[in-house]
Design brief:
By secondary structure, the chain is mainly beta. Helices cover 4% and strands 44% of the residues. The chain has one helix and 15 strands, in the order E-E-E-E-E-E-E-H-E-E-E-E-E-E-E-E. Strands 8, 9, 10, 11 and 12 form a five-stranded antiparallel sheet that branches. Strands 4-5-6-7 form a four-stranded antiparallel sheet. The chain has a three-stranded antiparallel sheet with strand order 1-2-3, with no helix packed on it.
């Protein structure tokens, strides 16, 4: 459900028909609007591949973030289903390019591969993501308003994806991302 929309929206991934070719995959992200007594399709967006994990909702900036299976880009839609993308170029966030800009080597084959979560306030937003490839398994924090990565951290070598994320509030103030690695278990990304 999308909080902050004029009427409640429910996001649904509709998979391609069985036997669809790669040229006409047919996967879609659909928003169904609850109008009280009735429902209607508010919008429908074609996606290039199946969506592997639930989209992330940013009610503060009214954005929906999602990734498709086997891709390295993070897509951003507004609540009307219009692709808004990165503030840098209006396209999906190119995470390989952002990792390269931070000096992370060997990311040409890196793809998104875990759950996507975020923290959003009026003054700061962070989207938490994970990718893997020749560079290994990485977790990172994206500032979607600036279109930059705030931080990047390698995960344990045996982890193949992030199984879950949560946020721990520090007693000294601020938030600490906590992720569950597929093999390493619970990892807290906070200095003591």
């Amino acid at each position: 459900t999308v909080p902050g929309a004029a009427n409640p929206l429910v996001l649904v991934h509709t998979p391609a028909d069985a036997g669809a070719t790669s040229a006409r995959k047919g996967d879609r992200l659909v928003a169904i609007e609850d109008q009280g007594a009735t429902y209607r399709v508010a919008w429908s967006v074609k996606v290039d591949a199946p969506i592997g994990v639930a989209p992330l909702i940013d009610a503060v900036r009214q954005r929906i973030y999602f990734a498709v299976h086997g891709d390295s880009a993070l897509h951003a839609l507004d609540f009307t289903g219009r692709e808004v993308g990165s503030p840098v170029d209006g396209k999906p966030y190119d995470l390989r390019a952002l990792l390269t800009a931070r000096g992370v080597p060997n990311v040409n084959d890196a793809t998104l591969n875990g759950h996507i979560v975020g923290t959003f306030t009026a003054t700061h937003q962070t989207v938490f993501l994970s990718m893997s490839g020749a560079a290994g398994q990485l977790v990172m924090g994206l500032d979607p308003a600036a279109g930059t990565l705030d931080w990047v951290t390698p995960m344990a070598a045996q982890d193949g994806y992030t199984a879950a994320w949560t946020i721990a509030i520090r007693s000294s103030g601020g938030n600490c991302p906590v992720f569950v690695g597929s093999q390493s278990g619970i990892n807290v990304l906070c200095p003591p």
